[in-house]
Design goal:
The protein has 163 residues and is an alpha+beta fold. 17% of the residues lie in helices and 38% in strands.
Length: 163
């Protein structure tokens, strides 16, 4: 299935009638929207998802669920969809915490926080995306090294915003 994305400028403005196709080169000055969700349980633990071993950075752990917004999808719609697809968690209670421009990936990241009381044993793994999950406390999270986490972007947000 071909994944089609809206094209954006650096200021998070959608470029009318411009589309991008996943896997094809993104022109300089053009971006696609990516939403990431940090999941924090009401007991203070964080959800980590282990990437499928067949994916880029396979076997590493992610502090976020998330992915690229599809055509005509708003950031919050993307975040709700990705959260449900990758974890099974159904939540509309998402708080936007930061927007980040990543020129190297031609990506505009919209970062969300989801504080939930979801059953910690009811996480659903997405086939070909994730192979395991675990809940960790903040101390354990901060002790994880860059060789274990797929990205430090979300970890920096947890520290910076004290969430």
């Amino acid at each position: 299935m071909i994944e089609i994305w809206d094209a954006y400028d650096r200021q998070f403005n959608k470029i009318e009638n411009a589309r991008l196709v996943r896997g094809e080169p993104v022109p300089d000055g053009i971006y696609h929207l990516v939403c990431e969700i940090i999941v924090k349980h009401m007991d203070g633990t964080y959800l980590l998802m282990q990437r499928d071993f067949e994916k880029h950075l396979g076997g590493m752990w992610e502090l976020t669920a998330g992915g690229s917004a599809l055509t005509d999808e708003t950031p919050v719609e993307c975040a709700i969809r990705e959260l449900r697809e990758e974890t099974g968690i159904i939540s509309c209670n998402l708080q936007e915490i930061k927007r980040i421009v990543h020129d190297g990936h031609h990506s505009l990241y919209v970062e969300y926080l989801c504080i939930t009381d979801w059953d910690k044993n009811a996480i659903i793994l997405q086939d070909r995306e994730t192979v395991a999950y675990k809940w960790v406390d903040k101390t354990s999270l901060f002790e994880m090294g860059v060789d274990v986490l797929a990205s430090n972007r979300a970890l920096k947000l947890v520290k910076e915003l004290n969430i």
